Amino acid sequence: ALMEGTSFSKTVFGGQPTKPDYNYVPCAVFCVPPLSVVGFSEQQAIDQAKGDILIFTSTFNPMKNTISGRQEKSIMKLVVDAETDKVLGASMCGPDAPEIMQGLAIAIKCGATKAQLTT
């Protein structure tokens, strides 16, 4: 909504025709546990990538659950361009997934690589 408002105000009041960029806008389903995605899905990456893609998955116990002893798990998936190591998409199911994907969306839009996210 912020991006759309900025585009509208630049176009109407600033004389700079601007279209919103909907690439890498995260989406969420606020269920229990919440789901969230950003960027390309596996199929979209296969259809649009120039070369091979790699899929990385991880299941983990969120750090906030370690002290309480809760065994609620999270799962995360990264879709990565095999040649450039650039992250094309991500998805997550688990506590705080929508908030985590908001931050990850910025990194992905900036061209983050898997190496940058995992080191």
UniProtKB/TrEMBL annotation:
Which cofactors does it use?
FAD
Q: Which UniProt keywords apply?
A: Disulfide bond, Oxidoreductase, Redox-active center
Q: What protein name does the entry list?
A: Glutathione reductase
List the molecular function annotations (GO) for this entry: flavin adenine dinucleotide binding; glutathione-disulfide reductase (NADPH) activity
**Source organism of the structure:** Ceratophyllum demersum (Rigid hornwort)
* Pfam families to which the protein is assigned, alphabetical: Pyr_redox_dim
The domain of life for this entry's organism is Eukaryota
Q: Which residues form the Pyridine nucleotide-disulphide oxidoreductase dimerisation domain?
A: 25-117
What family is reported? Answer: Belongs to the class-I pyridine nucleotide-disulfide oxidoreductase family.
Quote the cellular component terms of the Gene Ontology held in the record: cytosol; mitochondrion
GO BP annotations listed = cell redox homeostasis; cellular response to oxidative stress; glutathione metabolic process
